[in-house]
Predict the structure.
Amino acid sequence: VQLQASGGGSVQAGESLRLSCEASVSAYVMGWYRQAPGKQREIVARRNRGGGTDYADSVKGRFRISRDNAKNMVYLQMNSVQPEDTAVYYCYAHYGWRDYWGQGTQVTVSS
């Protein structure tokens, strides 16, 4: 399983950013995790093929996850980003009873 993420970068607080990830398979669950320096990896958002979603409390109302099942794509629309959103963001997929991770894309938010 290959996961190719894109869309990271450096933005100012309050701005928006969109992450994209393409999977090489049709995974039941796709989503995003993040890891800030010195912290553990944490969930940001996940979405299953049926449309069920799961968000971290810290991003509810600001981030929105979507999928294009036909293209095996998952997106994360990040609005009103804050410096605490700074992290490496990892694309995630659950397929064949296993979890897979992409290579990570850096998101840096300055105040």
About this structure: Residues 12 and 100 are 30 Å apart (CA to CA). The chain has no helices and eleven strands. The first strand starts at residue 3 and ends at 6.
